[in-house]
Amino acid sequence: MVAIDIESEEGQREALRRMLTIRAFDTKAGDLFGDGELPGFVHLYIGEEAVAVGACSALEEEDYITSTHRGHGHCIAKGLEPEQMMSELYGKRDGYCNGKGGSMHIADVDAGMLGANGIVGAGPPLATGAALTSHLRGEDTVALAFFGDGAVAQGQIHEAINIAATWKLPAIFLVENNQFGEGTPVEKQHNVQHLSETAEAYNIPGFTVDGMDVTAVFEAVREARKRALNGEGPTFIEADTYRYRGHFEGDQQPYRTKEDVAIWQDRDAIESFKQKLIDAGTITEAEFDEMESEIHDRIEQAAADAKEAPYPDPSEAYEDMFSATVPEINEFARQMRADGGERQ
Amino acid sequence: MSTESRSGSGPAQTEEMTVREAIRLALREELERDEDVFLIGEDVGAFGGVFEVTGGLVEDFGEKRVRDTPISEAGFMGAAVGAAATGTRPVVEIMFADFMGVCSEQIINQMAKNRYMFGGKTEMPVTVRTTEGGGMGAASQHSGTLHTWFAHFPGVMAVAPGTPRAAKGLLKSAIRSNDPVFVFENKMIYEQKGEVPLDEDYTIPLGQAKVEREGEDVTVVATQRMVGESLDLAEELDGDISAEVIDLRSLYPLDTDTLVESVKKTGRLVIADESPLSYGTHAEVATRVMENAFYSLDAPVQRVGVADVHIPFSPELENEVLPHGDDVEAAIRRIM
């Protein structure tokens, strides 16, 4: 279940719950990484929750998304379970990718999540392809690509949007402008004031929305989805947002000050949406606290369970390359074993 | 039209046709067999492909399934990957293998890695057809033989037919496979003729080489254009030297067993492939044989290929660098 009616009270509470889940998950992931619990590296989505939740809440379960290296928020918003995600971050067997992908490659194709992606700009062509499947099969589904402001400078994005626009494919291109491509500010990477202006080049609609406003993102994607299903082709949406943490955990962030971050934190998407719901009587402060506490407990439990979960067997490193085993892999794996013995 | 016996399945109809016609027949049959199969590439539709391989298909299957693309190799290769991950079976045409660099990201980091990175939970039924090889004065950016790159890179399979029969059977297996398969077509053998089975379910399993001619004195493992030239050479040498000629057909997976069995019989190995020699397809074939039949070798393994240069334009220069049957003969005579 991903689609919600954001005009209903229940839908609004669900949107809030999803944003809180993302923040709790990534806060915990950051803590675990800082404690040396997680291998590799992690890119946290904290601050940008309204974009993923606003967008995915306007999608149906059968719709597809492509993601980025900063993908935890997209996963949760598309309905993936934090428990299996946490296991993947730990490199455990019961993670979404059986421990082979990690933070940057979480995927669940059955849930319409075509993968977090370590290559900036690689997602939009995949979304164009998923939209092509929909077109070829006459399905009522769309594909939405999340990508960052840095990715807009990548050539393959242009190719993907041009193809989708020319073929009127049911795709949505959503750039999360979090103001920095790694450590370089957006104005040093692009010659346009708003990235959405690039849409003009493809003769498709382009909008900039407040990415700190979950309702604004939801409404923009809902409209884009309608257009896509009407055969009117893709829409380019820019969501202005901000990441509160470094590009990756451990980033010293010489490119900005704490005051810069505070300006955005003052308009925090979760705080402002919470206040809006409290003001409207949709949720009480006590109900909010209970929701937050439930989510906190769930994430703590997920982390504790993931820590205890079994690792994959080393022999699994040689599985999943192809739909069926090729002789080379078995033979070479056997040769490379120090004891020359058979792998089970 | 003639008939031939195939082991286990009785007589089967064959017809003489060119490599080009065999590929087109395979595409036509698979488009008819499975609605999820579609062609995507530059000028594959009304134009029929620059080498006319896809000619006539758009008339029968429509523009939806025989899709002309913008000149956006990265974009449509990526779209093919996304389409395959979501349930369709794209057959991509990259006009010249030399253009692979333009779309390599989508091949290397998406197509080849997704199944593995996702713990085996996605299928990737993409076929990529492309043309290779020098011989028509197309110069360095339209004549390269790059298949070693893809045979080397984990997560994709690679085949390179040397006969019309192999062209049909391998391409059909590629399209039916749930894994990414690259089909490398040498552009100089599109007109080469041979008998091709008409059976609509005729496929050649990926990972099987074929002994095209039996011999006793030397094994010539050849690919693409070098298969035909090696077969012609073997006929010329007949009575003097008995050469066994194997069409390698599948670069990855590689049929070690057939190679080893042959070398155990002949004791000599020549590898003829149009790749640059360093770190090439030749090296992998040689290593597989040496790992498994070292003590059967009576002479050093010989390689016939391109001497680590690009394919030049001038016919004088191009002819100089391309391997031919006489180079195979010289290699054989060095070790007899």
UniProtKB/TrEMBL annotation, chain A:
InterPro entries: DH_E1, PDH_E1_Alpha_Subunit, THDP-binding
Gene3D superfamilies: 3.40.50.970
Cofactor(s) it depends on: thiamine diphosphate
Dehydrogenase E1 component domain boundaries: 17-314
GO biological process, one term: pyruvate decarboxylation to acetyl-CoA
Protein's UniProt keywords contain tRNA processing: no
Pfam family, one: E1_dh
Keywords from the named record: Oxidoreductase, Pyruvate, Thiamine pyrophosphate
Coiled-coil residues: none
GO molecular function: pyruvate dehydrogenase (acetyl-transferring) activity
Protein name in UniProt: Pyruvate dehydrogenase E1 component alpha subunit
From TrEMBL, chain B:
Residue ranges constituting the Transketolase-like pyrimidine-binding domain according to the UniProt record: 17-192
Molecular function via GO: oxidoreductase activity
Gene3D superfamilies registered for this protein in UniProt: 3.40.50.920, 3.40.50.970
Pfam families reported for this sequence: Transket_pyr, Transketolase_C
GO biological process, one term: organic acid metabolic process
Keyword hit for Transcription: no
Entry keyword annotation includes Oxidoreductase: yes
Cofactor requirements of the protein: thiamine diphosphate
Top-level taxonomic group: Archaea
CDD domains: TPP_PYR_E1-PDHc-beta_like
SUPFAM superfamilies: Thiamin diphosphate-binding fold (THDP-binding) (SSF52518), TK C-terminal domain-like (SSF52922)
Keywords: Oxidoreductase, Pyruvate, Thiamine pyrophosphate
Protein name in UniProt: Pyruvate dehydrogenase E1 component beta subunit
Taxonomic classification: Archaea, Methanobacteriati, Methanobacteriota, Stenosarchaea group, Halobacteria
